[in-house]
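COURSE: Structural Biology Practicum
ASSIGNMENT: Worksheet 4, Part C
STUDENT ID: 0417
INSTRUCTIONS: Below are two proteins. For each, the amino acid sequence is given first, followed by its structure token string. Answer the questions at the end about the second protein only.

PROTEIN I
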Amino acid sequence: MSLDQAWRSELVGVGFITLLLIPLGLGIGHLAILLWGGLSLYLAWHLYQLYRFTRWLGKPKSHPRPHLFGIWRPLMRRVDELSGRGQKRKRKLSRMLSGFLESTGALPDATLVLNDEGRIDWWNSVAAEFLGLDRKRDKGALIDDLISDPVFLNYLHTGHYGRPLQMPAPVNANVSLEVRIVPYGKGKRLLQARDITRLHQLEIVRRDFVANVSHEIRTPLTVVHGYVETMLESREAFLGPWKRILGQMQIQTLRMQRIVEDLLLLSRLETQRSNEGQGVVGIYPMLRGIVEGARHLSGDQGHRISLEADERLRLVGNCHELESAFANLVYNAVRYTPEGGDIRIRWWLSGNGPCFSVSDSGIGIAPEHIPRLTERFYRVDVGRSRESGGTGLGLAIVKHVLSRHDGKLVVESEPGKGSVFTCRFPHARVAS
């Protein structure tokens, strides 16, 4: 019997009993008392049924299942149906949870689940190995108390998880970890740590190789360039037919020297500590010198170069590194802007922090090239870059310098309409 049918049956029964009580009450002359008494008995019976039902529902293991009657019987069956569905759903969720734990436990990466208070709810065996966690001791512990690395704590609490963090493993400084944090749910976070020791060692080997080769190449290049320059300046008659060839050799040795110098600068940026050689930098005098260099590089091309700068706005940083980054952006604008084009250089304090920008009316950059501009030796137009003397390392240098100064490079460009390169720095870099 369904609940609707039980309700109809209950109402029919109540109506039938009432019809029997009315003539009986009229016959004895106490209709009101008889109806009130019958209603009280009916209510008491239902209250007793309710008591037995709720007592069993609250603690089904402590109390026997009651044998109910009337409308309570289909209600009891409905509770059994819902309980059965709940048990099935619980078993399904349990299987899903077991599968999740089994799969994450088999992952080669360390995985932790942090609750909204930053406490550890769960971790896999790799996390125990990398981070030195103990099941009995560290369950529910604050992650701050277990990993005291200040760089990690800053990454954890700032909430900027767009890029992964590289750090040494807490239990073994020789192991390098790449840490990613993914927020989910209400304040929960999934922390993953991957062993990148091998990649880190390969990066060190590559960096050392480039630095060593660059150092070794610089000396013979200097010698060759010196001899070529000497022969070009010589007035010996027998060198006359060779002047054109010697001129080409001089151009290429100069280009090779610039590449070597840029590679050595990149190597220094990668190996030196970010706070080394930093102080208060007057940007305006630096930009005046860069503008003069840009006008000299422009030569007869007639570029219109303008400078708008806040003379009082100074930056905390490394003067030589900042000058290298800003000069690369300005000189690139000169190289890639046609004759008579406009180049605008700005230095100002925005609402988000200090900004340096270089805008030009040059050839522009297609959208597919913009994400790769800061890669080493990546060129949008290889032929034009070589003709203009570019090394393909300028924007890579800019990227490293900005990273060491907590800044970022924003590129806006459209083919045929020019480009805008903007360096954004945080307010903390403003020199008071």
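PROTEIN II
(use this one for the questions)
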Amino acid sequence: MTKCQIVPDSLTPRTITELGLDPARWSHVLDLCRTMVDNATVPALAIDFVRRDCGLEEPLLFGRQRLEDVPGTIRDDAIFLVASLTKPFVAMAVMMLVEQGQIALNERVRDLIPEMDATPNRPMTVRHLLTHTSGLPDMLPNNRQLREQQGPFEKFLEGTLAVTLDFPPGHGVQYQSMGFVLLSEIVFRVSGLRCSEFLRRNVFEPLGMRDTSLGAPDEWFEGESPVVDRIVEVVVPAEQQDQTDWNWNSRYWRQFGAPWGGLLTTPRDLATFAQMMLNNGNAGDLDLFSSATISAATSNQLREFRDVPEADRRARGWGFGWRLNWPAHVASHGDLVSRSAYGHWGATGTMIWIDPDRNSAAVILSTQPFERSGSRLARLSNAIAAAIV
């Protein structure tokens, strides 16, 4: 195949066959998408697919821009809140600092954030934060109160520095969104740039991800046709339904830019990033990450922790911010992707997987919370993987 440039507006048209997809099986993908939207399994759905050297000419979008809209009203430039798909981006910002020699993974967090020195979290390292082995909780005990008060990032940082660990660092695995609060702060302490700005300058702009931001800037709310109108409305979980001041669709949350779940982006921008990962850090003439960094970030790092339970090390691996495929887990990337696949899920009903063995990556974004859409997204993932020749 003729190599495609990675920037979104330069991908040249490719037929399904030229993409290495079976047309009949790809039709199953389209049928599933239409069915999920028509029967209201999800209000909105978007998919994109790339190989190392090319991808779909345009992402496929189905459904509603607003929850009260009729089907077929989603914008072709729709922006999605992708929740925990944010975490690999923050992790790769940290890995960029690692490959530049500005930090090392075994450095203690207290040496980078001195305020931690007075807390019981002293043995914690950057490596622990990136692999969910820190012992931190997923959310703070007063998470709801902080959001009700529209608390700033500094309040979440303060709480994370003081919270009691659930186990000593390196002695277990527990999904910990609050670890990404500390990783985001480390990016700031080392680079002098807030994580949102670091990502914009060093990742989003170089890759041409023009519609991606960790938190919506003020200018997105300005003008006669504000960018914020492009953000697809999400079905919120029960505990958020009456909380219009702080739920996923509120201005507060869209602007907060939570390093554990506040990324706003498009399926095409995510596919652009995935294609760079497939190409071992390269994007055309741009050498964004070294191949050593990509390899380390996407390999099972739990094998290095002797006190982590063997079942976790063997069957539920983590790279640095990237979750490896867990075939027997309810939140697997799919039943038909390769064992080497890696990616992430998001609570708003989103998924990305990158499969080096199949030379492919898929982006699946919906607006139905994962707890209600996860099994359907897994079926869609299977259909995409089955279509790869």
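ANSWER KEY EXCERPT:
Q1: The longest helix spans residues 370-387.
Q2: The chain has two domains: 8-85+210-387, 87-196.
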